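The records we work with from here on pair a chain with its fold. These numbers are not coordinates but entries in a learned vocabulary of local backbone shapes. To see the layout at work, look at the sequence and tokens printed below:
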Amino acid sequence: MKPRHLTAALLGLTSLALIGMTPTQAADIDAGKAKSAMCAACHGADGNSINPAWPRLAGQHAEYIEKQLHDFKSGKRKDATMTAMASPLSDDDIANLAAYFSSQKPNGNAKFDEALLKKGQDIYRGGITETGTAACMGCHSPNGMGNGPAGFPRLAGQHPDYVVKQLQAFKHGTRSNDPGQMMRGLTKRMLETEMKAVAAYIAAMK
């Protein structure tokens, strides 16, 4: 490996370590597919869940999926069902599941309220000036693709019901595994109507 490539690789590993993630290059997608049978009832065989209460995992960044599974397993993120599912998983199982769902294609079939799109777009792209709420695209990117190495999940095409549920959880402190309390700080200034609007815009993204 050339020196500059080695330096880049080491920097990448350092970045992952700083946000509590592990590299997934060696993950086995086929093994993840086999293991995903346990996830299919809620998240769909390919990660495109049908129930709007359960998140779509297809196309989500592997780094993000890994972190969430580790957090469920350790209790850092609370959910009775997911804790029970994640507890018996090994580190390899988690990496393989993350690689599999990350490799799947989102189907873009999330349902949303079109009447909320304009307000949601304004919030996602410009924030809320009156309360000093930052724009979502600053971390999750203008097209909703997020940034895996930085720990910011893909949002595009996610079920709006699930998005609102997570925003409310951050606001009320029932979810607290956000780095630097970023999401908890942001959502404290958001009204439920604003959450629903931005969730609709997120769902409409392809």
The two ends are 37 Å apart (CA to CA). Confidence is low (pLDDT under 50) at residues 1-24. The chain is about 50% helix and 0% strand. The chain has two domains: 27-103, 114-204.
